[in-house]
Amino acid sequence: MRIYLVQHGLAKNESEDAARPLSAQGREDVTRTAGFLSLFEKPRPAKVMHSGKLRARQTAEMFAEAWGGLPVEKTIDLAPNDDPSIWSAHLASMSGDVMLVGHLPHLQRLAGLLICGDPQREPVHFRNGGVVCLGKYESGWSILWQINPTLFYGER
User: Fold this and answer.
1) What does the alpha-carbon distance between residue 103 and residue 80 come to, in Å, rounded to a whole number?
2) How many domains does the chain have?
3) Sheet of strand 47-50: strand arrangement
4) Phi–psi pair at 129, nearest 5 degrees
5) Taking the C-alpha atoms of 118, 80, 9 and 66 in order, what is their torsion angle to the nearest 10 degrees?
6) Which CATH number covers residue 57?
7) Max alpha carbon distance in the chain (Å)?
8) How many angstroms separate the CA atoms of 148 and 146, rounded?
9) Of 39, 74, 146, 150, which shows the fewest CB atoms inside 10 Å?
């Protein structure tokens, strides 16, 4: 089983737009990352799930479209401050590959819990519009790969 953890693309500041949709840079970052993955990552996730916040939904829809129209659904327990042990338990009972589009610090804490058994550890650094792919094995979860928008144009 693979899980794709995605931090939503860069969003507009709340002062610009209270709904915080993706910024132009955020849309570009997600377009590049999603397009790259759609060409090279096999297998692909069975579905894309997001927190329900506008920036996460937009990011999820862009990844789903790049992969040829994957199902997208809003789910609970992916908000920034939600307990990562809830998704750890969900994943323990799942068998299909899934993409989760969410927020920090939740994704960071979930990765720490899955990989290290400790939500306070930071085994991987997340970036807006980036993806961390984890694989589930008999011995637990491992990092398979990570891709960030900086791959396409360097650090900003």
Assistant:
1) 5
2) 1
3) 72-74, 47-50, 98-102, 2-7, 131-137, 140-147
4) 80, 5
5) 80
6) 3.40.50.1240
7) 47
8) 7
9) 39
The model carries a pTM of 0.95
DSSP 4: E
What separation in angstroms does the CA of 28 have from each of 7, 19, 105?
A: 14, 19, 23
Q: How many CA atoms lie within 13 A of 141 on its CB side?
A: 23
Question: Which residues are CB-contacts of 153 (< 8 A; sequence separation ≥ 6)?
Answer: none
Torsion of CA 23, 153, 3, 67, to 10 degrees: 70
**Sign of the alpha-carbon torsion through 85, 91, 93, 99:** positive
DSSP conformation letters of 50-89? E-SSHHHHHHHHHHHHHTTS--EEE-SS-STTS-HHHHHH
- pLDDT tens by residue, the chain, 156 residues: 999 999 999 999 999 999 999 999 999 999 999 999 999 877 789 999 999 999 999 999 999 999 999 999 999 999 999 999 999 999 999 989 999 999 999 999 999 999 999 999 999 999 999 999 999 999 999 999 999 998 887 665
Range of the domain at 60: 2-153
